[in-house]
Protein 1
Amino acid sequence: MPALWIAHVTVTDEEAYGKYAKLAGPAIEKHGGYFIARAGRYVQLEGNERPRNVVAKFPSVEDAEKCYHSPEYQEALGHARNASERELLIVETSE
């Protein structure tokens, strides 16, 4: 079953986070993922607001998880760790 990778982010260092974004996209694509929402307009109804929200779709939960743990994504993540506050989760879809 396909899976969604959902990130809610507050960027605290635009320059460093830009380096993350430049590397993260190719890592996601390498693992069969593609963006379906990326920092677009949103409406916060509940919970803590994060102004940047990203959704990528993967062929499976396993593919999304492999992407997260891949050397390419971990390199990208090194730029995001001190440049943002974020939550990231993977959700299997019902498709």
Note: The radius of gyration is 13 Å.
Protein 2
Amino acid sequence: MGATKTDHFTDEQNKIATIAKALGHPARVAIIEYLLKVDTCICGDIVNELPLAQATVSQHLKELKNAGLIKGNIEGTAICYCIDENTFGILKDYFSKIIVTVSNQKCC
């Protein structure tokens, strides 16, 4: 069987692409912003913050969790979500390298 498109790129490139894809929807960006604002784990309030159905919010939360942007802990019958600081550290390092490189470029 042939190689997949992701096989031709580094683990870091694939990780950044996965994170970027997860952030590629405004509802997911809104969820991240909400979790940052409340600065605590949230169990059910997220649905009240977005103009989306519960099932849709759950799907967005799943995508964010699969990308490592949020963590989910089971508390009773609910899953409580919060920011995964490790993944945001990866993003910080990645974009810091880009900013430094672009700032030092002597290009058109």
Note: The first strand starts at residue 70 and ends at 75.
